[in-house]
TrEMBL record:
<feature type="transmembrane region" description="Helical">
    <location>
        <begin position="241"/>
        <end position="268"/>
    </location>
</feature>
<feature type="transmembrane region" description="Helical">
    <location>
        <begin position="207"/>
        <end position="229"/>
    </location>
</feature>
<dbReference type="GO" id="GO:0008137">
    <property type="term" value="F:NADH dehydrogenase (ubiquinone) activity"/>
</dbReference>
<dbReference type="GO" id="GO:0016020">
    <property type="term" value="C:membrane"/>
</dbReference>
<dbReference type="GO" id="GO:0042773">
    <property type="term" value="P:ATP synthesis coupled electron transport"/>
</dbReference>
<feature type="transmembrane region" description="Helical">
    <location>
        <begin position="12"/>
        <end position="33"/>
    </location>
</feature>
<feature type="transmembrane region" description="Helical">
    <location>
        <begin position="330"/>
        <end position="358"/>
    </location>
</feature>
<feature type="transmembrane region" description="Helical">
    <location>
        <begin position="111"/>
        <end position="130"/>
    </location>
</feature>
<feature type="transmembrane region" description="Helical">
    <location>
        <begin position="370"/>
        <end position="390"/>
    </location>
</feature>
<feature type="transmembrane region" description="Helical">
    <location>
        <begin position="45"/>
        <end position="66"/>
    </location>
</feature>
<keyword id="KW-0496">Mitochondrion</keyword>
<feature type="transmembrane region" description="Helical">
    <location>
        <begin position="410"/>
        <end position="433"/>
    </location>
</feature>
<dbReference type="Pfam" id="PF00361">
    <property type="entry name" value="Proton_antipo_M"/>
</dbReference>
<dbReference type="InterPro" id="IPR010096">
    <property type="entry name" value="NADH-Q_OxRdtase_suN/2"/>
</dbReference>
<keyword id="KW-0812">Transmembrane</keyword>
<feature type="transmembrane region" description="Helical">
    <location>
        <begin position="454"/>
        <end position="471"/>
    </location>
</feature>
<protein>
    <submittedName>
        <fullName>NADH dehydrogenase subunit 2</fullName>
    </submittedName>
</protein>
Length: 488
């Protein structure tokens, strides 16, 4: 009966999964037939695919993702999943719009990029609504396979291939650990369904249970790029294309953390005294490693990779606190982090869209402020917000998550976190110094190739978004509160 219950669960999701699956089937058929058509001289399809994907995502968001039931105050898992799906679709639309020009210019004949992106969407939505460990594993594996290909998509780069291969090897080991962890949970409880596991809390002395929790915890820490399982993140960020780096940084975070919240704050909440110490150690180590290691980085994307590790540590604080307020601040932090990450990488993409090779070293960005003040002012404003400088958006996210952490009587730990994370301001300010004040001994890469209206749109969006939180920060906070109370 458990076997049939699994398939009942598999096909009991909302219509978004079916819509995305139908779109993938249509795209595969269309792409394979027309890209190999001799009569049509093998036309390039990626630009048309990206345009259609953008239109498709917007329609999905409007008609299926945005439902009045998502704003109900019912305390149920379905409402929580609907709200997370809403945020995820919005982030995916933003990522696709930001990267479409760059991807279309660099890989005009490779329609597989859009197909892989659609599979990432499908796996993420399945993962969002999964209420069975077996289905979670299958969805994570589907997503991981897509990201393995994305990491090595730039086949002209040996470093991209090397980093992608490392990611694949590490990911395969972690997948085995995750499967073993789920198997040990099944061995302890006799079920992998959330509904059944919520009723079983009498196995506190079972050693297989604790081993399973540790394996699951390690696997998810690897997936979000938390220390000490972060080494793959820096290599993949540095070796992948800038559009793929944005995909890694923004798209999977909200879904993976929502699964962590459901597993550890619902299923294993009775064992919080056991797993919270692991999350706390990883959180503190992530903040320390991310903040201190970024100081010594000379390559831009590796610096942003360590910055991501530090932000992951802050998000994990919401899991450690294990309360409804901490879940609210965790979701709030994820929303702010995702938008700021997209804004940051959109600036980089618009800057290099007509350049053959990405200027990876910090020294290549010297005196850029002398050539495009709008671009660098936008970049500086984004960096200040990510660093948590008040009164910008990033400050509110860090303040709220630290406040919820202090409310759980982690006062000394919070002071330590503030002192360590203040180091991060140094390398952000160093970037601004490089852009404005370091003179270049040779001609810089930056030519006024970015269209003026693009720069105006970027700076306008940045100013509106950051100032929005100065006057009305409670709007995003209210939405994250609504999501959290549907779960806890």
């Amino acid at each position: 009966m458990e076997f049939f219950n699994f398939f009942d669960t598999l096909f009991s999701f909302n219509i978004v999964i079916e819509v995305i699956a139908l779109y993938i089937l249509f795209s595969l058929g269309y792409g394979v037939l027309y890209s190999s058509s001799l009569e049509l001289a093998t036309p390039p399809l990626l630009n048309s695919f990206l345009s259609f994907s953008s239109f498709f995502l917007i329609l999905t968001f409007i008609f299926f993702g945005f439902d009045i039931s998502t704003f109900s105050l019912d305390y149920n898992l379905y409402s929580f999943n609907q709200n997370i799906q809403l945020i995820f679709l919005f982030i995916s639309i933003m990522v696709l719009f930001v990267t479409r020009d760059f991807v279309g210019a660099r890989f005009i004949s490779k329609f597989e990029y859009d197909i892989l992106f659609s599979f990432v969407l499908l796996s993420a939505v399945c993962l969002c609504f999964a209420d069975d460990f077996l289905l979670i594993y299958l969805a994570i594996e589907l997503q991981s396979l897509c990201f393995y290909v994305f990491a090595t998509f730039n086949r002209n780069s040996e470093f991209s291939t090397e980093s992608g291969l490392k990611y694949f090897v590490f990911g395969a080991v972690i997948s085995c650990l995750l499967l073993v962890g789920f198997s040990l949970i099944y061995l302890s409880f006799g079920s992998t369904s959330f509904e059944s596991l919520l009723c079983l809390t009498n196995a506190s002395d079972n050693p297989f249970l604790f081993c399973g929790i540790v394996f699951i915890l390690i696997a998810f820490l690897f997936k979000v790029g938390a220390a000490p399982f972060h080494s793959w993140l820096c290599d993949v960020y540095d070796g992948a294309m800038i559009s793929v780096t944005l995909l890694f940084a923004a798209v999977p975070k909200i879904i993976i953390f929502s699964v962590i919240v459901k597993i550890f704050l619902l299923i294993f909440y009775d064992f919080a005294s056991f797993w919270s110490s692991f999350f706390l150690f990883s959180s503190l180590l992530s903040i320390a490693v991310g903040s201190l290691s970024a100081i010594y980085q000379k390559r831009l994307k590796r610096l942003f990779a360590y910055s991501t590790v530090a932000h992951t540590g802050f998000i994990l604080l919401g899991v450690v606190a294990a309360s409804s307020d901490s879940v609210k601040t965790l979701i709030f932090y994820l929303m702010i982090y995702s938008v700021l990450t997209i804004l940051l990488f959109s600036l980089l993409i618009f800057a290099i869209i007509s350049i053959v090779r990405f200027p990876g070293y910090l020294a290549s960005w010297t005196s850029s402020g002398l050539k495009n003040y709008v671009f660098v002012m936008s970049f500086a404003l984004t960096l200040f917000s990510i660093a948590g400088i008040p009164p910008l958006a990033g400050f509110f996210s860090k303040f709220l998550i630290l406040f919820s952490f202090i409310s759980q009587e982690y006062l000394l730990t919070s002071v330590t976190i503030v002192l360590i994370s203040s180091v991060a301001c140094f390398y952000y300010i160093r970037l601004i110094k490089t852009f404005f004040f370091v003179k270049s001994s040779k001609n810089s890469f930056w030519i006024s190739s970015t269209k003026r209206q693009h720069s105006e749109y970027i700076i306008g969006t940045l100013l509106f978004f950051n100032m929005f939180f100065v006057f009305r920060p409670e709007l995003f906070s209210s939405f994250s509160t609504l999501i959290s109370i549907t779960l806890l």
